[in-house]
Write a structure and sequence with these properties.
Layout: H1 6-14, E1 22-30, E2 35-45, E3 56-62, E4 68-75, E5 81-87, H2 100-114, H3 118-135, H4 143-155, H5 168-182, H6 197-229
Antiparallel strand pairs: 1-2, 2-3, 3-4, 4-5
Amino acid sequence: MAELDELAEFERVVTYKDVAGYGRVGEMYCPGCGDTRRMDMHLRYRSESSNPKPPVLATLHCVQCDTQFTAVIYEGGDGNSHLAMLPATNGGLTTPHTPEGVAFYLDQSQKSQSLGANSAAVAMFRGALDQLLFEQGYKAGTCGKKLNDLEAAIASRSAPKWGYELDTEFLKVMKELGDGSIHPNDGDVKQQAKLDNELLSKLKHTFLMLLFVVYELPHEKQERLTALKSGVIKK
């Protein structure tokens, strides 16, 4: 969820020695704002060590909209420290006009990643894509069938406007990533290591672009056109 180097940046602030237990961390995606924002952090618990070990507990607040997050550093099954970032609201990617169904799967993805379940997070992005295509009128069959129907509509010039503004190869790759996250892959689960936080960050940026093109750009165009028309002098 965080666009900052989550664990490293958070641990840097946690080691501050200010008596208030307060610091400011780098930018994170804020679901309340629908964009990246700076965060204020209030330390709630840590060991007395200057190099605190798990567990560490803190709360963060968006400096713009005050959306709250609970942050926990915990020791994972691999013996390393991990960061779980739990928002007080639906925490996935969202924009002002993202439909509820699409936002649901994006929220599920964020919650999965927060607890280290990256494969599940990628699968939920595929679910969000499937839901987006369904919401846009492509209701038949699997996600792959919906993508094929979209491409056919683009070829016949009957697709929604956003279909001509976005390379459908992005959608295919997101679908393939989701497929790989849940398919057996010849029993080789080690391949799931490819679905790391860096890849998820790229996936989030790509899906945010999709949300903007499908849902926000039409509204922005209409608002600007309406604003211009309001100044037209009628004859």
